[in-house]
Amino acid sequence: MYNAPIIKKALEVISLIIDKNKPLGVTEIAKTLSLSKSTVFGILKALQESGFITKNRATKKYIIGQELFELARKVLRGGELTTVARPFLEKLAEVYDETVFLCVKEDHIIKVLDTIEAKKILKISSPVGTKLPVTASVLCKVFLSPFGNDEIRNFLKERGLPKYTENSITDIELFIEEIEKTRRNGYGLDLEEYMKGVRAIATLIYSQDIPVGAICILGFISSMTDGKLKGMAINLLEAAQKISQNLSQLNIKA
């Protein structure tokens, strides 16, 4: 049987970086996988050039890159993602009577895959297929949170941070602080930053520890009070965890 050792080693490096879910250096990777530093360095260089991982210039450590994110999304097709997530979206919408939607990042846009609307008369609508800019506040925060600050900084310099409302954060360093807060909490908030009078809370969902989409709950400021957001965060994270577990158990292949 033909065996390609370097491919196997490269996959081991990618798996380690995903499993550890933190920046790793050449020495730590080499020691953990019992590989030489030169071998690890060569693999990391190739993966970095392909965009599957990215290197923090300050710490010289590596984390997952944008291309790995995109690959995971393509492998986990939208229909399967929607099927697994829908019961949890419906439950969140029922409990809070706010609109809940499932979305994915596609290149430089965010696409809504599924929507469960609130039953009340005054509600936010986000039809299936709606496309949002990647800089849409809370979704930008959660979708960029897995990446290193250097990569985020470069991305935002290229895309810019539009002023959607008077609450929009247009300073890149301040926005990165919000992303760091999102990492710590596990969810992001939008307090009238994308649409005036509208609040939102969102978190990522994963398959095999790779982010493949996000759940977002949004509503008018009159109903999305500070107290409601606190309880909502707990249930949102719990729903995302269960969806992620179910997706990972499917072991979907391309």
Structural summary, described in words:
The chain has helices spanning 5-20, 26-33, 37-50, 66-75, 78-96, 137-144, 149-159, 172-185, 226-250, and strands at 53-55, 62-64, 99-106, 109-116, 131-133, 188-191, 198-207, 210-220. With 254 residues, it is α+β, with helices and mostly antiparallel strands. It folds into two domains: 5-64, Arc Repressor Mutant, subunit A (Orthogonal Bundle), CATH 1.10.10.10; 74-250, GAF domain (Beta-Lactamase, 2-Layer Sandwich). It is globular, with a radius of gyration of 19 Å. The model has no long low-confidence stretch (mean pLDDT 87).
Q: What's the N-to-C terminus distance?
A: 22 Å
Class computed from helices, strands and strand pairing: alpha+beta
The coarse overall form would be globular
In the sheet with the most strands, the strands line up as 5-4-3-8-7-6
Regions with little confidence, pLDDT below 50 for 5+ residues: none
Q: Report the biggest beta sheet as strand number plus sense, adding barrel if it closes.
A: 6 strands, antiparallel
Strand content: 15-25%
Give the strand tally: 8
Report Rg: 19 Å
- Along the chain, the helix and strand elements come as HHHEEHHEEEHHHEEEH
Helix count from the secondary structure assignment: 9
Summary keywords:
two-stranded antiparallel ribbon; 2 domains; Beta-Lactamase; 9 helices; single chain; alpha+beta; 49% helix; 254 residues; Arc Repressor Mutant, subunit A; six-stranded antiparallel β-sheet
